[in-house]
Automatic annotation (TrEMBL):
It comes from Blastopirellula sediminis. Residues 9-267 form the Glycoside hydrolase family 57 N-terminal domain. GO terms for cellular component: extracellular region. Residues 315-398 form the Alpha-amylase/4-alpha-glucanotransferase central domain. GO terms for molecular function: 1,4-alpha-glucan branching enzyme activity; carbohydrate binding. It comes from the Bacteria. This is DUF1926 domain-containing protein. Residues 416-701 form the Alpha-amylase/4-alpha-glucanotransferase C-terminal domain. Keywords: Carbohydrate metabolism. Belongs to the glycosyl hydrolase 57 family. GO terms for biological process: alpha-glucan biosynthetic process.
Amino acid sequence: MSNSIRLCLVLHNHQPIGNFDGVFEQAYQDSYLPFLDVFDRFSDAIKIGLHTSGPLMEWLDIHHPEYLDRLAAHVRAGRIEIIGGVFYEAILTMIPGRDRVGQIRSYTQWLENRLGATIGGMWMPERVWEQQLTSDIADAGIRYTLLDDFHFKNAGVQQDKLYGYYVTEEAGQVLSIFPGSERMRYLLPFAEPQETIDYLRGIAENHPNSVVVFGDDGEKFGTWPDTKAHVYDRGWLHNFFTALEQNQDWLHTTTLAEAVDSLPPVGKVFLPEGSYREMTEWVLPVPQQVAYEDLVHELEHEPNWPRIKQFVRGGYWRNFKIRYPETDEMYSRMMAVSKRLDLARRKSGADQHLLDYAQTELYRGQCNCSYWHGAFGGVYLPHLRNAVYNHLIAADNIIDSAIGQPGSFIDAEAADFNFDARQEVKLVDEKLLALFAPSQGGMMYELDVRTICHNLLATLTRRPEAYHRKVLAGPSSAGGEVASIHDRVVFKQAGLDERLQYDSYARKSLVDHFFDNDVPAPLVANGEAQERGDFVHGAYEAKIRRNPDRIQVQMSREGNAWGVPLKITKGITLSAGSSTLELAYLIEGVPQDQPMHFAVEMNFAGLPSGADDRFFHQGDDRLGQLGQRLDLHQTTTLGMIDEWLGVDVRWEADQPTSVWTFPIETVSQSEGGFELVHQSVVMMPHWWIQGDKEGRWSVTMKLEIDTSLAESRMPSQEVAATT
């Protein structure tokens, strides 16, 4: 065949920070290792580009260095081009420019040192693009990257102009960009190899001397459901490589570097912000997402759909921070640590070696997977959220050491910590860091236990998802075929349709409720109890009261319950060197002749259910695992122990009360199917209050965070670093 084309196959292998060690190992055995084994059996005519994310690369270097040695050999032979990128796979648009350049440069150096690679290109995490990224990427030493053809089509580039690469420019900096083929993403590895060959042959006949790029997840080749048997046991990958070899007279597999060095660009382009098509759909608010899906299904069989489709697109990636405020909380915390590190770098006498360590922890806390949600668990996976906070808190602790922060201190600050043009309040000592949102019900939305680098309020609110329609419709089957991850409907547990429950407020702590006097506990747990007051979402006024060794955040609000005017004042006090929060409530205007049902909700995240070493207790008495629904009366104490984490969270009140506990669980989508995920434990003391002769009612509670078990297992130098 006289007409020939170049095919660039680029794999993206990734496991996020915080994923379980067993998941890394399983992906290695199911995808990364067998792919390389098959690849080794073919000639030099087969070349690929390979991007392996930093978290996975570091894990491989520790657990399977022989795999990296094999990669290095292929790099020397010119068969594998190592694609660089952001060391810890951060979405570039959500981190400061200094961290963009720093992450890319540091990963390039790591790859050059370990694999002997020359890094010219980078993988764009989740293909999230904004034009201003161009200059930072170029400053970091990158010459080219790849995005989806969807980006180019949104810029008005027609399909017949997508068989090559383009250059773009920002502030005088130039970057080459390849359009990855969406059609190829759906062909590989789900279609038979001959179908892909036929598709490429058609391009060669109509667009000779062009370049076609496939860029997608390496986990599609073995880790995604049902793909291991398909790709390896039934020989799909072997057959695909065989087909490439058999057609090498016109179909040449090549690397991105070779394509850039051998061919001129098709032209210049400026791309609008975006990601791959599915991502832009997932970020839409649920009503719009449902309407979008319905519209596509309605029109996709219409004759004019191909003409219409090019003008249809979804939303803007940054709005994941609106869809999931919990990701905005992580983002805001990350930005605070990044800014603090930057200031510490300029501080005279700061330990720069320690700050390098803090920088690595910050970079790890920028890993993107828990900052969004689509076909995979993402933000719904507690262990990923916990890992982000673990690294951010660790970075904060290390900065303290690097700048010579006193071993015992206490401080408070009011500022706009989450960039919403409203004041939040921070209360911090060497053991705890608490963040409060007076404008959002006076809730406490972050509680960092600094000694173990854990945020007890890395919670998640139950909310509707567009795919919950599939949950209600029930599971489906692919009829024996290997289905794309976007098409499978599999239930990992039975009865998930009955577990769809939604919250009307954030599941945080110090959330102030007024319920009906006889409200059933299950109604409260399901998020269906009617709110009789206006304090949950109402704005509180805040002030900080300071003593040399004690600081109090005091918040107050004049509102009502059942139409009765009330004023709630709550004070949260922290003493220097303490890991105990004192929580004092005063309610004024309380009727003397009728009881009011008042409750204070506290959520605790990262304390999973379903394990015997995580349990409720009162002193030495165990009351069941942390998923247990308790209904206690006339009690003044309750504790929660997580022996694996090494923490005991103990609540105490100065007057007997009733306490409900229940788990918060979500029904979410993952690569393995729909699943029930434990998000937090609710501890809710509640009272039927009546006013004294002055119409006042008060209670004082304590929340003690005991990490002595965890500290007993730490090397002495690690305890010193965290405190």
